[in-house]
Structures are given as C-alpha cells and as structure tokens.
Design brief:
Length: 134
C-alpha cells in the first residue's frame, strides 16, 4: 500500500516538482495551497507525512502545525517544514507541533526525498535527475 504525503505550499512550481518527484517514487500525493486548506486535508485524509512551506497566506505552516498538534486525530502526523534560509524555529516553538525536520529553501530533491524516507522509516537509494532543485 502506497504511503500518502500531503504537500502544502503556495508556490505552484514547488508543489508541481514535489508531487511529480514523490509520485515517481511510488508515493500517493495530495496538495493544498495554504495552512488552512492543509488542516482540512490532513483531517479528511490522514496522510502519513506532511511536507509544508512555512510562509504561506491565510495560515502559515507553523500555525497549521500547532493546530494539527492540538487535534487528537492529527497530532501524530510527522511534518517536514520548508523554510526560507535563516528562518529558525526555536525548541519552545517546535514542542507545540509535530515538526520533526526543518529544511531550508532552496533544497535539492535528493535531500528532501532522503529526509522523507527517513521520517517514514524507509531506506531507499535516490537517483537525482536533471532539474531536481526547488
């Protein structure tokens, strides 16, 4: 059975790249454009992992992660947070979420896939193709 990943980002290009890359590796992928939609999708679909941007309109990635952590149905979903370089989340912020990894943009697809596999307890060699940076 395929693992379900929810990708949340307001940048369509990044969503497209991540969706295509993750699906090519056998993951099922659903997407949302902001944290508010992400909360709704997480509650409705219970993904195995969430990959979310930090800076988004309506509800940012951190606010979304806090809301999901407060909800018993979604509190255990691991989150990989994508942030602009230099933006740090403090330990006191992280404890209010289930953010298990933070990755700075721009990132390589290889690094992201390795982190996703690690978070899901999977080991896989990942080939890097052309245009795999986001």
């Amino acid at each position: 059975m395929s693992r379900l990943i929810l990708v949340i980002d307001d940048d369509r290009h990044i969503v497209h790249i991540l969706k295509r890359r993750l699906e090519s590796l056998g993951f099922s992928v659903i997407t949302a454009r902001n944290g508010s939609q992400g909360v709704e999708m997480a509650r409705n679909h219970r993904p195995d992992l969430i990959v979310s941007d930090f800076q988004m309109p309506i509800c940012n990635g951190y606010e979304m992660a806090v809301e999901l952590h407060r909800d018993e149905q979604t509190s255990d979903i691991p989150i990989l947070m994508l942030t602009a370089r230099g933006h740090k989340l403090s330990p006191s912020e992280l404890i209010k979420t289930n953010i298990q990894a933070v990755m700075a943009k721009p990132f390589s697809a290889r690094e992201l896939i390795a982190t996703v596999n690690e978070m899901l307890g999977m080991n896989a060699e990942v080939e890097q193709g052309p245009g795999d940076h986001a």
